[in-house]
Structures are given as C-alpha cells and as structure tokens.
UniProtKB/TrEMBL annotation:
<feature type="compositionally biased region" description="Polar residues">
    <location>
        <begin position="743"/>
        <end position="756"/>
    </location>
</feature>
<dbReference type="InterPro" id="IPR038765">
    <property type="entry name" value="Papain-like_cys_pep_sf"/>
</dbReference>
<dbReference type="Pfam" id="PF14836">
    <property type="entry name" value="Ubiquitin_3"/>
</dbReference>
<feature type="domain" description="USP">
    <location>
        <begin position="101"/>
        <end position="723"/>
    </location>
</feature>
<feature type="region of interest" description="Disordered">
    <location>
        <begin position="729"/>
        <end position="756"/>
    </location>
</feature>
<keyword id="KW-0963">Cytoplasm</keyword>
<feature type="region of interest" description="Disordered">
    <location>
        <begin position="437"/>
        <end position="505"/>
    </location>
</feature>
<dbReference type="GO" id="GO:0016787">
    <property type="term" value="F:hydrolase activity"/>
</dbReference>
<dbReference type="InterPro" id="IPR001394">
    <property type="entry name" value="Peptidase_C19_UCH"/>
</dbReference>
<dbReference type="InterPro" id="IPR029346">
    <property type="entry name" value="USP_C"/>
</dbReference>
<keyword id="KW-0833">Ubl conjugation pathway</keyword>
<feature type="region of interest" description="Disordered">
    <location>
        <begin position="65"/>
        <end position="95"/>
    </location>
</feature>
<protein>
    <recommendedName>
        <fullName>Ubiquitin carboxyl-terminal hydrolase</fullName>
        <ecNumber>3.4.19.12</ecNumber>
    </recommendedName>
</protein>
<keyword id="KW-0788">Thiol protease</keyword>
<comment type="function">
    <text>Deubiquitinating enzyme that removes conjugated ubiquitin from specific proteins to regulate different cellular processes.</text>
</comment>
<feature type="compositionally biased region" description="Polar residues">
    <location>
        <begin position="1"/>
        <end position="26"/>
    </location>
</feature>
<comment type="similarity">
    <text>Belongs to the peptidase C19 family.</text>
</comment>
C-alpha cells in the first residue's frame, strides 16, 4: 500500500465527486474502475456504496483514513481475492477464451456453480455487467434489496469469468454474500440449483431496480374488459414498481382464469412471471421389488418385480404377485423386514404409498383356513425370529447375549397343535431346507420331566384373519391378511405372557422362547400390552448353529423372470410438458380461492395461459415429486430442441404474423442434475456467446461438447434465447467499436491501493 495521501473534501460533496477528486490527487490519470473504503471505529473497512450520498451522510470524519481500490486487469478486486495464492504468476500469464472459466466447488456448492454458469451465459445480461451499465442502476436504498451487494458480487464474478485470465475462480465472496442475505444457503449443505437461481434473479432485480420509491398499485380484475386492455394495464402496473435488467430480460406475463364451481363466476387476471415451472407427465404405475416366501420349505425365496398402481393398496400388491405365483392373494401377508425383525406387518387396506423404494418387503404365503367368526378360526400365524447366543457375559458371568440373525418368518400353526413340542417340529420342517436334522444318535431328548413340560400347550390365540382351508405338509393353514388390531403382528385375546410356559427349554437343536416385537427381551420381563400377539424366538447355541445351520443356503434366493422387466419410460417432448402446464386444474383443499360473488372460499378450476414471453425464457422441469408419504425424482427423458422451439401455439396474445421470430427460441444453457433425492451433482451445458461453441461445466472443469450430447435425463433447468434478441445482439456486436487491446498491449497501471 502506498503512503496515504491527504485529501480535503467538502462535507456536502457527493461520494462520487470525492472519488473523482481522490483519483486525480492520488493517481493522476484515473483507471477505469475504482471504489472507496473507509475505516470504521472498530478498525475494519466499509464500502462507500451509494455515490449519491454526501460525505456527511456517509459519516466520514476529519482525518479519517480512506482507501481507494482499483481493479486489476483480470477485472478482479484485490479485496475479493484470497490472502495468499499458490502461484499467482501462473494465472497472470494465462490467456484463454472469455467465459470458458470453471468455478471451484467450496463443498456441496455444485448447485450454485451450475446456476451461475447458466446465468453467466445469458448474453445480454453478461454484456450489461461487462460494460458497467449496472453501476448507474445500483439501488442501495431499496428495502427489498440487498444494498447492492449481491449485484456487485455477481458483477465481480462475471468480470473475472469473462476476463480470459482464469481457468477457474473461487466464488467464496459470492457464496458468503448469498448466505448472508439468504440463511437457507448458509453452510455447505446440498441445495437446489433452481431455488438458488430464483433467489439470485430476485436479488439482482431488487438491487438493480430503477424504481427508487415503489408506489402502491391495486390489482384489478378483468371485469369483462378485453384481454388486451387488462394485460396492458397489468404490465404497466408491474413496471411502475419493478423496472430492471432482470425484468427486461426474464419477465413475461401469464393470463390466469379462475372459475367458481358454484356460481360460475369467472375471474381473469394477468400476472408476471420470471420462469416457467412445468410438470412432467407422471406414470400412474409403480415398480416394486418384493421377496415371496412360500410355505413349501423346499422352495427358496423368490425375488419379484411387480407393477402396481402408484395410488394402490397392499391388496393390489398381493394381486400382482398372485399372477406370478398362482397363490391366492388371500393367502398372503406383507411385511417390512428391517434388521432381522418385522418393522411392520401391513393390512390389506393400507396404502402402498407408505412403502418406500428402499424398504425390504417380504410377502409370506400362509394358510387360509379360517371362518368369519373369530372363535371358529382354526389357525394362527406366529412371527418367528432367529437368535444366536453370544459368549458375552456380565461381571457375574451369568448373562448370555442374544443376537438376531437371518430372515424372520410368518408361520401358520393349527390352533389344536399349539404346544411347544408341536411347534418345534413344525419349525424344524419349515427350516428343513437349511437346517440339517440330527441323526437319532445326535439327538438329546432330555429327561422325562422335560418331555412332559414340552407338551404344555401354548395358549389359544385369537383376532386372526383367514380364508379357505388347504393342507401343505406338516405345516397347516393360517391367516391370510395383515393382522387385525395391530400393524406389527397378530393380536391375541387370551391371558397375557405370565400364563405362557416361560422357561427356555432345550429341545433338540434349538430352544423356543416368547419375546417382544423387537425380539430383544423375554415377554415375562417386558412391559407391553398383554393382549398383543406373542412373537417366538428360535434360540441357537453357537455350536449347534455351526453344526446344523447352513447360513449360505439360508440366505439363498432365486430371481423370477419378472425381475428382468423394466418399466419403460417413454420420452416426452418439452411441448407436452408445456401443454400440461396450461391444462385446467382444480385447486387443492389447502389452497382455495375466495369467490367475491359467493363470499366464501371455493375449490375453483384454474387455467394458466401464456400471454407474453420474455427475451430469455427459463423453463424449470419439475423432476422432484413430493407427497405425504414419498419423495421421488422423475428421470424421464424430456426431448427438447436445440433450435427453433416454437411457442406460437401456446401464446394466446394476438400475434404478429410478420415477425415469427418473436415466438421462436434457441437453447443457450442447461442446468443438469445427476443422482437422486438424497444426493446428487449439478453441472451445466452452455453456449459461449462469442464463439457459439457448447461447453460442459463441471465445477472447475470445462470441456467442449457437441450438441448431440446436450439432451439427457439429467436436464433440469433450460435457458432459451428468443431469436430476434440473438439477431439484435449479433448486429450490435458487429457494429460496435474495435475491441480493446489484450494483455499483450500496454500494461495497466499498477498503482492500485489494496484494502489494508
């Protein structure tokens, strides 16, 4: 920093005059761009932003230190650069194509980089900042704005990117400014590029709004007047409060028509828009993967891929599986298995929307032998868990840990065979595919007392559902649908756990124990509803499990032919999405319309039409779908044209047939999103305004691409330029003054005053 100069200025002198005087006294020949900073009482520097303020209004004091900062030749302000660079000389020597500049990922900021690259490649907006036209329109006093800071930060970024002196730049200052004015973008969480774009366009508009004092404007309904008159009035009212380069470039006009379903009252208004958020045609089908577990122990579980109604019920899932297996839907129970236990057992009437794609869904075949009345049901279904004793002990050497393993089962048991001994043999048969039966020499039948106690009957169980009877080997019929009265397991109307034989009895290969729904504690010590259906745990000693239990076979499954089926998503044309956008829809209950005739809120029908389109049209493809139970990303391929996107069929305003280019658009940028809802990555395709060459921007990496690579399932936000605007910009470019000499010409002044 040079030795400070003393400058005498008047208290009533505007800041811009102070700047000019300081330039003359300090630099002699003033550079292209400078700005002033003052040191406050805390020792830090503050910008003198508003050039129209006087020195007194800017609260400058006598002998106050003022720093003047000048822009470097790469259009960067020294105050926005990192305090130290690894090799500043390398960037100093670099000379590349303006605009072909990457943005460093600061940590999950690819969404911001993508939005910035798209906006940076809007020709007329970038020229506006490169030619400093924004300086005369900065609105520092707008209460809805951001004191001009967002506009200045964006301008600095654009100037650096289009200087041709950087392979990539670090948008740290811009990121800090965004987080300061929009707390949702603080930190380094992943966000949506369209949401950042929406904030940025609004922030730039308010920072550059030419309207310094907004007047109150009353919105008027059409009231039967001609559309032309109402639309012109609405646009004039909009411009009375909003007039900026953002409005000039991106704002268009909707026609909104609401019709009351009761009285038929029609309300017509015209509303401005900055971008179109168009829906994608949504399939009413859904593909779900499930595992089918047969009652036949010789059959391995089968993996199935089923096509079901997106808004269907559990019964629809069973019906779809029945077509593959030949098993009646009434003989199926659907369960969500998580961490070797039943997370939930579904009822037939429950909605499929409660099942997420990541859930492990098992559908068990059970018997169907039951009557309509509860007391006459002949079978019950027992949830079965597998546990292994671990050698872990407590300090008394008296505790053995039990750990769940394998897949749980739902086993049908005849009511008249509810004894420990009968249940043991039923389970041994059910596990026979991967549990080896011991020979007669290996079996330990225990003493006579054990044999007597093992024949104690299990209490009668009720509250079960079922259907027709059918025998299948030693395992008999049981209920057919989800358990009545409980979402997790069958329900029991008999005495509670204290009436069950609770002693863990060693019988042959394993012992049986009643447990809670988590399978982690005995029901005798677990404080739960005594009416709840008991769960049964098969407890294995480590040695017995190692000797008789085949883990590889137990985990084995087969894939049904349907697993290879892929629900083909036919590509849709962008025009179809726009048609869907302009389709009549009924308002939702959460967003009713107040009818001035009925004097009450109504679920009116609403239709949006395009009346006037902007110079640059932003189309947001609504790929993310959110419902009460589910969230999904639609990876439908949307076919969009690179050139000649014709909107003449969608614009209802009387058209000028002599100027068809007013309704035709060419693509200039695309924001892409790869991945799903939980994680993903944003990139950009953009057409350079100077060379006409398309490039792929992936954070700090930039590479040329062909037009055939642009269309993909990742396309998320599309930027289109109206053809008459492109023609006008080309004419202006060819008629402009000769270009400014490059870095090889006369070097710029080095007398820049950095911020201390």
């Amino acid at each position: 920093m040079d030795t400070p100069h003393t400058a005498q200025v008047s208290h009533t002198e505007p800041v811009d005059q102070t700047l000019q005087d300081t330039q003359e006294q300090c630099l002699g020949s003033p550079p292209e761009e400078t700005r002033l900073w003052v040191r406050n009482t805390e020792g830090s520097f503050e910008r003198l932003c508003n050039p129209r303020d006087t020195v007194r209004e800017a609260a400058q004091r006598t002998e106050q230190l003022v720093s003047m900062e000048t822009q470097s030749k790469d259009n960067a302000w020294p105050s926005t650069q990192p305090s130290a660079t690894s090799n500043p000389g390398e960037e100093e020597k670099f000379q590349g194509q303006p605009g072909i500049c990457g943005l460093t990922n600061l940590g999950n900021t690819c969404f911001m980089n993508s939005a910035l690259q798209c906006l940076s490649n809007v020709p007329q907006l970038t020229e506006y900042f490169l030619k400093n036209r924004y300086l005369e329109e900065l609105n520092f006093g707008n209460p809805l704005g951001m004191k001009g800071e967002i506009a200045e930060a964006y301008a600095d970024l654009v100037k650096q990117a289009w200087s041709g002196h950087h392979r990539s730049i670090v948008p740290h200052v811009f990121k800090t400014k965004v987080g300061h004015f929009a707390s949702q973008f603080l930190g380094y969480q992943q966000h949506d590029s369209q949401e950042l774009l929406s904030f940025l366009l609004d922030g730039l508009h308010e920072d550059l709004n030419r309207v310094k004092k907004k007047e109150y404007v009353e919105l008027c309904d059409a009231a039967g007047r001609p559309d032309q008159e109402v639309a012109q009035e609405a646009w004039q009212n909009h411009k009375r409060r909003n007039d900026s380069v953002i409005v000039d470039t991106f704002h268009g006009l909707f026609k909104s028509t609401l019709v009351c379903p009761d009285c038929g009252n029609v309300s017509v208004t015209f509303d401005p828009f900055c971008y179109l958020s168009v829906p994608l045609p949504v399939s009413h089908k859904r593909v779900m993967e499930v595992f089918f577990v047969s009652m036949d122990p010789r059959r391995k579980p089968e993996q199935h891929r089923l096509v079901v109604p997106k808004k269907g019920k559990i019964s629809d899932l069973c019906l779809a599986l029945a077509k593959h297996t030949g098993v009646s839907p009434e003989r199926m129970m659907v369960a969500d298995v998580f961490s070797h236990r039943f997370y939930k057992i579904y009822q037939l009437e429950e909605s499929l929307s409660s099942i997420l794609d990541r859930d492990d869904i098992f559908i068990y075949e059970v018997s169907g032998r039951a009557s309509i009345t509860e007391n006459s049901r002949e079978d019950v279904v027992l949830p079965i868990y597998l546990r292994e004793r671990t050698p872990a002990r407590d300090y008394n050497n008296s505790y053995y840990g039990l750990m769940l393993f394998g897949h749980p089962l739902l086993v049908s048991v005849p009511r008249d065979r509810l004894s420990w001994d009968a249940l043991y043999h039923i389970l041994l048969y059910r596990l026979s595919r991967y549990v080896t039966r011991p020979s007669s020499d290996d079996e330990d039948d225990g003493d006579d007392k054990d044999d007597m106690e093992e024949k104690d009957s299990i209490p009668k169980l009720g509250h079960m559902a079922g259907t027709s009877s059918q025998d299948f080997g030693p395992e008999q019929a049981g209920p057919s649908c989800a358990v009545a009265g409980s979402s997790r397991a069958p329900v029991d109307s008999t005495p509670g756990p204290s009436h069950w034989p609770q002693r863990a009895r060693r019988k042959h290969l394993f012992t049986l124990q009643t447990v809670n729904s988590n399978g982690t504690s005995d029901r005798s010590t677990y404080n739960e509803d005594t009416q709840a259906q008991p769960y049964i745990a098969i407890d294995w000693e480590p040695e017995m499990k190692k000797r008789y239990y085949d883990e590889v076979e137990a985990e084995g499954y087969v894939k049904h032919d349907c697993v290879g089926y892929v629900l083909k998503k036919a590509p849709v044309r962008l025009q179809e999405c726009i048609e869907l956008f302009t389709t009549v829809e009924t308002l939702e209950k959460e967003n009713p319309w107040y009818c001035p005739t009925c004097k009450q809120h109504q679920l009116a029908t609403k239709k949006l039409d395009l009346w006037m389109l902007p110079e640059t049209l932003i189309i947001h493809l609504k790929r993310f779908s959110y419902t009460k139970f589910s969230r999904e990303k639609l990876d439908t391929l949307v076919e969009f044209p690179i050139r000649d996107l014709d909107f003449s069929e969608f614009v209802i305003k009387p058209q000028n047939e002599a100027a068809p280019e007013l309704y035709k658009y060419d693509l200039i940028a695309v924001s892409n999103h790869y991945g799903g809802l939980r994680d993903g990555h944003y990139t950009t395709f953009a057409c350079n305004k100077d060379s006409g060459q398309w490039h792929y921007f992936d954070d700090n990496s930039v590479s040329p691409v062909s037009e055939s690579q642009i269309e993909s399932k990742a396309a998320y936000v599309l930027f289109y330029q109206r053809q008459d605007v492109a023609r006008r910009l080309r004419a202006q470019s060819s008629a402009s003054d000769p270009p400014v000499p490059t870095a090889s010409g006369s070097p710029p002044s080095s007398d820049s005053m950095d911020v201390n």
